[in-house]
Amino acid sequence: MTGPVGVGFVGVGVISDTYLENLNSFPDVRVVILGDLDTERAKAQAEKHGVGEWGTTDDVLAHPDVDVVVNLTIPAVHVEVSSRAIAAGKHVWTEKPLGLDREGTAQLLRDADAAGLRIGSAPDTVLGPGFQTAKRAIQSGVIGEPMFASTTFQTVGPDLWHPSPAFLFAQGAGPLLDMGPYYFTGLVSLFGPVSRVAALGRKKLEERVIRSGPNAGTAFPVEVPTSLQVLTAFDGGQQAASLLSFDSALERHGVFEVHGTEGSLVIPDPNQFEGRIAYVKARTSIADGKWGEQEWIEVEQEGVLTGRGLGLLDMVRAIAAERPHIASGELGYHVLDIMLSAQESVASGEFVTVESTVAPVPAVPVDFDPFAATL
């Protein structure tokens, strides 16, 4: 690839705005065409963001200037649309999750590999300067050897604010598959692959009611557990405990803590590209029973701040440099396998072995500049 890489979108829902704003600011990519089932919506987004062409999915896949397809469709058709893009000879960047089942998702990766094409998968927040600064701090030894982590996402639920929330409570969603990718991608990026998973899950309600928007008062079924506690054991010996809930009166999310032999470090919300990084050192003694306040040591964030689309940019630069990209399809598949294993553990009440694995996740160089022209 030389010069700006041509990009086409399939799906232009709400999340497309942030992708378009960022990708249009990166010199190494050029958004060529937007496609959607609703072509009028595609046209409106194209006009809003200065994209020259719009049309259907077929128009995007057939476009000769499109090298990479951005798949922003609903999760239930992620694999179908990505597979069509691979068949059309395009690289793929897809929103999370990569797929909803192991068989079809693994076949997608095999097809891409056979065609010599790349697949990248959200979330790409782990490429942001917040997470990467924290990762470098851990690798430098500020907390000693990492032992375990704890993460938390708890909210009253998206039915409180979303105008059409039923899909978030259907099979393939819930807090596990909707929000879990951020937390488990972060954990795997730090600790490597997961070997075993155990989980407990429950529902607060069998039916929920939309509480805002034009459909307020409409009831819909809850198909999946809405609160889960997940234990993960990593190949490297580390452990993590993760709470994911759509049932909590107490709103608390973005909690990501890593505890080591010499200290503990807080990492920014894995759904964001920046945030606070700080650590405390382990106490060496307690004099006269006086605990006092622990001293937080702040870590200055390093790197250029941007947003969604960063993973796609890294992927096209990696293709040109013939190196692995960071938010890879293999990483997305392993995270999916972790979450499906957690679902199976909820059903069986037993630990579940995670069959897939992934290579160590590369770090982002501190001098990575999204706004430089490198191709």
From TrEMBL:
<dbReference type="Pfam" id="PF22725">
    <property type="entry name" value="GFO_IDH_MocA_C3"/>
</dbReference>
<dbReference type="GO" id="GO:0000166">
    <property type="term" value="F:nucleotide binding"/>
</dbReference>
<dbReference type="GO" id="GO:0016491">
    <property type="term" value="F:oxidoreductase activity"/>
</dbReference>
<dbReference type="Pfam" id="PF01408">
    <property type="entry name" value="GFO_IDH_MocA"/>
</dbReference>
<protein>
    <submittedName>
        <fullName>Gfo/Idh/MocA family oxidoreductase</fullName>
    </submittedName>
</protein>
<dbReference type="InterPro" id="IPR036291">
    <property type="entry name" value="NAD(P)-bd_dom_sf"/>
</dbReference>
<dbReference type="InterPro" id="IPR050463">
    <property type="entry name" value="Gfo/Idh/MocA_oxidrdct_glycsds"/>
</dbReference>
<feature type="domain" description="GFO/IDH/MocA-like oxidoreductase">
    <location>
        <begin position="131"/>
        <end position="266"/>
    </location>
</feature>
<keyword id="KW-0520">NAD</keyword>
<dbReference type="InterPro" id="IPR000683">
    <property type="entry name" value="Gfo/Idh/MocA-like_OxRdtase_N"/>
</dbReference>
<keyword id="KW-0560">Oxidoreductase</keyword>
<feature type="domain" description="Gfo/Idh/MocA-like oxidoreductase N-terminal">
    <location>
        <begin position="6"/>
        <end position="119"/>
    </location>
</feature>
<dbReference type="InterPro" id="IPR055170">
    <property type="entry name" value="GFO_IDH_MocA-like_dom"/>
</dbReference>
